[in-house]
């Protein structure tokens, strides 16, 4: 089964994505080295197909197809290139704050261009000195009349070197209160925006995630996203409503790739005169990975479906990212046990790379420890804030989301 809670139009989209993978992505694999991380060719091809703007309402030039559609595209691409899928989801994440809290003028100016694939967006929150601790952000924005002057560095920014605009969250007041941060839309070619040299990394081949520095970067107040002091809301809502499901989709693709590798290996390799898959111990290990894949699909598609229907689903989104990433790591570790020495050589098997890619899914949008803490708080009724999924319910698409039809 390809997916759950999908309709014919979703499966048509899946078929289109698989054709694109076969025709455009596979011939370019592997995506290795720094230059592959800087090459915007494939991500721009996907953007021109409307896949970055799947959740942008039709009123702003988007397809308005929702989060299930977004999940399908990201998940399918992650099966063959987790790095490219990570790039795609980073650009989807970049438009979330604009959708949720941007002014009408900003939406009219930028969302149609994102929807049509003319430009790519990313969100610029984390820093070397704060990581994902939002209130620890040290990059500053100082107001001077109708202009804001941004200074400071941002690190580990998804799609950093291919994005045309950045949703930048900066400190606009001292302290650690709820109103100390503000978000801004900053054009990548604006004076004062600098991209630092991209470093090589061990995971997510082809994914651009580097550093951006702002030196006296002057931004008009009209580029502000949300009210002054709403920066944490921009960052948190983007992470909860987009980031967690997106990362769960990438992890799901990694999981399925692991299963494919293991099944192929255990069918081809023989031991004591029969294929490995026919030995009880190995068959049980493969069964464990299959169970992880099946449960991960159920989690991801349910969360996306609930989000599209405007349901309160913050905990489902949280659980999706947390558990699928953990299942991916556990399955890749088990796959290395099954393949043995074969797993140690990239020319023999991609399992070691998939293990690194799976680990890369764990820290973003909340480490496993933070996610467990937040789930525990929800279970105990200690969460005071209104859920993000209820506050920013997805626009309904009556042909797909409003009824259980097969259109």
TrEMBL record:
Enzyme class: oxidoreductase
Cofactor: FAD
Source species of the chain: Streptomyces sp. R39
Domain Acyl-CoA oxidase/dehydrogenase middle: 124-217
Record's protein name: Acyl-CoA dehydrogenase family protein
Keywords noted in UniProt: FAD, Flavoprotein, Oxidoreductase, Plasmid
Keyword Oxidoreductase: yes
Its EC number(s): 1.-.-.-
GO MF terms, alphabetically ordered: acyl-CoA dehydrogenase activity; flavin adenine dinucleotide binding
Residue stretches making up the Acyl-CoA dehydrogenase/oxidase C-terminal domain: 229-378
Family: Belongs to the acyl-CoA dehydrogenase family.
Keyword Flavoprotein part of the UniProt annotation: yes
PANTHER family xrefs: ACYL-COA DEHYDROGENASE, ISOVALERYL-COA DEHYDROGENASE, MITOCHONDRIAL-RELATED
Annotated Acyl-CoA dehydrogenase/oxidase N-terminal domain residues: 9-118
